[in-house]
Amino acid sequence: MLYLGKRWLGLPKFMQTLNDHSYKELERLAKQRGITVQELIRAVIIPEWVNEQRESDKGR
Predict the structure, then answer these.
(1) Per the domain annotation, does 5 fall within a domain?
(2) What is the pLDDT of residue 57?
(3) Which of 17, 28, 39, 49 is in Cβ range 3.0-4.6 Å of 35 for a Cys bridge?
(4) What whole-number distance in Å separates Cα of residue 24 and Cα of residue 18?
């Protein structure tokens, strides 16, 4: 949480539902790296996706 002035601001959050196959694949990839699925999504998948989107936007 972040304190701003006289109040606390929560960080943005989102919830995602995955089918079993997708979750098992993420679990396998996370295990290979020695991290949790949540860490994989937060530290690897989202940053890679954002970078790919930026690159594809440059081509427009």
Answers:
(1) no
(2) 87
(3) 39
(4) 9
